[in-house]
Task: structure prediction
Amino acid sequence: MKRDKRDSRVVILGVCIVLIGVVFFLGFKSHEEVKRVVQEQYGEQQLMLARQAASAIAEFADERVTVIEILARERSGDTVENVTRSFKTIYTATGGFYSIEYINTSGVVVYGYPEERAPIGYNLYAENRSGMFDAARDTRETQICRPVPLFEGGLGTFIWVPLYKEDEFQGVILAIIKISTISDLFLVPLTENRTGEVYMIDGRGQLLYDGEAVVTGGVRGIVEEQKNGTEGTATYIDHTDKEHIVAYAPVRWRNQEWSVGITAPVSEVDLLIRSVYARQMIFMGAVIAIITGGSAGLILMFSRWNRTLEAEVKEKTRDLIRANEQLKELDKLKSDFVSMVSHELKTPLAAMKTAAQVLSVADAEDTKREMVSIILRNIERQTKLVTDLLDLSRIESGGMALKMERVSPGAVVADAVESVRHEAEEKGLTLKIELPESLPPVRGDREKLRQVVINLLDNAIKFTSRGVVCIKAREVNGDVEVRVSDTGMGIPEEEQNRVFDRFYQVGNPPQTGGTGLGLAICKGIIEAHGGRIWVESEPGRGSTFVFTVKKA
Ligand code: ADP
Result:
């Protein structure tokens, strides 16, 4: 048994270890998968940000060019004063320009707004910088150059819009947008509340904006991709060996093709995953706690039920066994009863038969008389037996009817004593009656109580060869107690309780020709009255039978 238990424990332990291993393996696998998916999604999200910023920048720049072009078209025939008068309005209303300048036909800056930012008198030809100016004039088209350094520092993009009055060239409006204006508006906000960086390059890979100088080493390869005007995500390792994820999107406006890049350390993704895991762990922990708590509760409940059920089954089995034993006993009693009754009924019959046979052939008067008296005695005996049996069966079936009334115990005792006086005197026994003056009446059936007292007195006389038979009555705790004592043979202690059983008689064979039913009937009658009956005895010195009946 013990070995079996240990073996099954080892098996369970093994299964647990294997299961834990499987869980770990699957956990590791799913971690890889989760990491890949989260990284992908994170990149997607970054890419979307990059796209949004790129299209906002393109729109912003396009709009600025269009505004200047509209101005050039509408003011084509106007004087220089009229044209330049609109600069201030456009500058303040549109916003985003660094400066707007008017360059006359000979390539000299004649006006600008804001004035302090315009190099009035600057001659493009003299400075050898007339390339874009010439191109605008000759093509009659807006010319935009790639961002170049400004005198004042920083990068700026130059927009050259030619002014024509029909075929007559009138000069060029030059609008400058500072790259820092664009980055302040669209790139710097992207770095707020996040760990990543943002940068922007132009079509040749020149850095236009670089938040935290991210474009070093590793990112170069990506810049090559960006120069092709594509969009996408990639990863690179920086100089501190940290891995970053980059999302980039092209900024297309007019002839310009720039590109915006957003970077973030991959550790950010890990952090995200960890927070997802943490939430999952909390959820799983809660689920496990609920499941284990619930199952433990269920197990406890079931085992308790089980225990109660087992106890109930045990109890019921015990009851059944007991009932079975009682049935067996009853069955035995019934068989004993039947054989005893048959025997008791046969004995007088046999005596009567013999007496009758003798009578039929006897001549002598004496013999005839004796035979008749034998027959009469046996008839009497059998009648008593049958009466006793009927009484007992009524008592045992609960069918004995008691005629309850106020009964004087003194009268019942005196009456009973009178019935047995003759017998006692015949045996030379002294009959003593001790009744107190005032004995309260009891509630009972007069006839039945008399029967009990007569029975006890009869027995006392029957089992006493000399001495005294005494009957006493007194009041005890609201009951009337009657004691019938004798100086007879007494009853051994171990048999004192059994004398109240039907057919029980002390001694084997019994010493008198009784039936063993008298005391059983007495007990039945007294208990039907709600009283008690018992015997106190010392073998060789006498017995005292005591019963109690309730006061009326
Ligand atoms: P019966 O007297 O007809 O045998 P009982 O039921 O009255 O039946 O008594 C049962 C038995 O109890 C008697 O057979 C006898 O052995 C014993 N017994 C009853 N009364 C006395 C007594 N006063 N002294 C000794 N034994 C007694």
User: Anything to note?
Assistant: The longest helix spans residues 266-361. The domain at 405-550 is CATH 3.30.565.10 (Heat Shock Protein 90). Residues 459-460, 463, 486, 488-489, 491, 499, 504-506, 510, 514-520, 543 surround adenosine-5'-diphosphate (CB under 6 Å).
